[in-house]
Specification:
Shape: globular
Number of helices: 14
Strand order of the largest sheet: 1-7-4-2-3
Structural class: alpha/beta
Number of strands: 11
Length: about 425
C-alpha cells in the first residue's frame, strides 16, 4: 500500500474567532465540539473509526492538561477502546498526527482514522503565552535578550535574507495585506471582522508598531483558540463511503504526496548550515520536493494553490523561494507580479493563513489538510479557488525544525 491510497473524507473546523475561556469553556469542550461536528458533517458512523490521533503543542502549559488523546473516549463513546495517541512537534504537531494516521492505514492495520489538531491559547496574558510558546526554541540557548522569542527568531531570518539577497520590508507588509484580505472571505477566520486603514500595513510605528527587529504587528500570526479534524481512509473504506453517498471514488481527494524532514533545533545552527550560494534552508526545499516527487507532479507550477505556514510574513516570504515559485532571494517578484494574490496564477493562503485565519498551533497542520480537501471538492464558498484540483501544503514547527508537506488532489469534482 502507498500514500496514493490514503483518501480524505472531510472533517470540521471550529470558528477561530471564539475565545473559549471567555465562554467559561476549556480545551475538552473545544475538542468535543470539533469532533462531533466532524462526524456530523462527514456522516461517518463513529463506530467505523478504527484509530485516532491528536496533534497538540502546548496544552500542558496553557491548560495544565496532558494526554489529550484520552479525550476521544469521552467526546465519543464509540471511541471508548480504540487506539489513540498524541503528537507534538510545535507548529507542525497537526502534521505529525496526520503522518501517524497515514502510516497506520498504509501498514494495513486499520481502515479509517480520525485526526484532530487542537490548541487553546487565549486563556492567559500575552507575556505568559509568549513564554509558553518559546518552549519550542532551545530554552536557555537562543533568543535570550528579547521580549518575544518567535518574532525575534524570524526577525533574525529577515536580517539574514537582507545580508544575503537584500529584502524590502514593504514586501512583507504586502504578504500580510493579502492574507488579511483573504481572511475576510472565510467564515471561520479570527480576523474576518477586523478593520484596517491604509496606514495599517505601513512602516509607521504609530499605526504598525515594531514587535521585534524589523517585524511589525501586522507581520505576526495570531494567538488563537481552535481545533480542526479530518478523517483519513484507505481505498477499501473510501470505496464503500463513495458508494454509500453516491459519489465517484475519483472525486474524493487523496493525499498524493508527502514530505517530512527535520533540522537542528537552533536557528543559528540552521543558518550556519545553509548553502552560501543557494537556499537558506535546503531541507525545506527537500521536504516540498519529496511531496511533489511522490505525487508525480513536476513542479510547483502544476499546483492550483498553496496553503503555507505564515506564522510571520517573513516565513511565507522564505517559503515562496524555497518551494520554487521564484529563484533564491527573489520572492519579491511573486509578490510584485501578483502571482500569490487570490486571483493570481498560484494563490497562497486563500483561507487567510495563520496571519488572517488564525494559528491555534497544534491545529494548523490539520486545518491546512481540511482546507485542501474543501478546495478540491469545491466547498470553500467565498474563498474557493476556481477548478482547484491539486493543492500544496507546507507546515513547519519552530524555526523550520520540523517540516511537513502534502499534495492533496482528486481526479475530478
Amino acid at each position: 500500500m502507498n500514500n496514493q491510497d490514503i483518501y480524505v473524507l472531510g472533517g470540521s473546523q471550529t470558528d477561530y474567532s471564539r475565545n473559549w475561556a471567555r465562554e467559561d469553556k476549556g480545551i475538552y469542550e473545544l475538542f468535543e465540539s470539533c469532533l462531533q461536528q466532524g462526524l456530523s458533517q462527514t456522516k461517518i458512523p463513529a463506530k467505523d473509526v478504527d484509530v485516532a490521533h491528536v496533534g497538540n503543542f502546548v496544552a500542558d502549559l496553557f491548560t495544565g492538561q496532558s494526554q489529550l488523546n484520552g479525550f476521544f473516549a469521552h467526546a465519543e463513546p464509540a471511541f471508548g477502546d480504540i487506539p489513540t495517541s498524541r503528537h507534538e512537534a510545535a507548529c507542525a504537531s497537526g502534521s505529525m498526527a496526520l503522518l501517524g494516521a497515514m502510516r497506520d492505514l498504509e501498514a494495513g492495520h486499520y481502515q479509517l482514522a480520525c485526526v484532530m489538531g487542537i490548541e487553546l491559547m487565549r486563556n492567559v496574558d500575552s507575556a505568559t503565552g509568549a513564554s509558553y510558546l518559546g518552549s519550542a526554541a532551545w530554552v536557555g540557548k537562543e533568543a535570550q535578550n528579547c521580549r518575544y522569542v518567535w518574532p525575534r527568531l524570524f526577525a533574525d531570518l529577515l536580517e539574514h535574507y537582507q545580508q544575503r539577497y537584500g529584502l524590502d520590508t514593504q514586501h512583507l507588509s504586502r504578504i500580510s495585506e493579502i492574507n488579511f484580505a483573504n481572511a475576510k472571505r472565510n467564515p471561520n477566520s479570527q480576523t474576518r471582522n477586523w478593520k484596517f486603514t491604509s496606514d495599517s500595513f505601513s512602516q509607521q510605528d504609530e499605526f504598525n508598531p515594531i514587535v521585534e527587529g524589523q517585524l511589525r504587528k501586522q507581520d505576526c500570526g495570531q494567538i488563537t483558540d481552535g481545533a480542526a479534524a479530518v478523517f483519513l481512509a484507505n481505498k477499501s473504506y473510501a470505496s464503500e463511503y463513495a458508494k454509500k453517498h453516491n459519489i465517484a471514488l475519483s472525486a474524493i481527494p487523496r493525499i498524493k504526496g508527502w514530505g517530512h524532514r527535520s533540522a537542528p533545533l537552533l536557528m543559528k545552527r540552521k543558518l550556519q548550515q545553509s548553502s552560501a550560494d543557494g537556499l537558506i534552508f535546503p531541507h525545506v526545499q527537500g521536504t516540498f520536493n519529496d511531496a511533489l516527487k511522490r505525487a508525480a507532479i513536476e513542479n510547483i507550477h502544476s499546483l492550483d494553490l498553496l496553503e503555507v505556514h505564515d506564522c510571520f510574513s517573513m516565513t511565507e516570504y522564505m517559503l515562496i523561494d524555497h518551494l520554487g515559485l521564484t529563484a533564491p532571494g527573489e520572492s519579491w517578484k511573486a509578490i510584485e507580479n501578483g502571482s500569490i494574490d487570490f486571483a493570481g496564477s498560484l494563490p497562497i493562503n486563500p483561507s487567510g493563513g495563520l496571519i488572517g485565519l488564525g494559528h491555534p498551533v497544534g491545529a494548523t497542520g490539520v486545518r491546512m489538510m481540511l482546507d485542501a480537501y474543501k478546495q478540491v471538492t469545491g466547498q470553500c464558498e467565498d474563498y474557493q479557488i476556481e477548478n482547484a484540483k491539486n493543492v500544496g501544503i507546507f507546515n513547519l514547527g519552530g524555526s523550520a525544525t520540523t517540516c511537513a508537506s502534502f499534495i492533496v488532489g482528486a481526479d475530478r469534482h
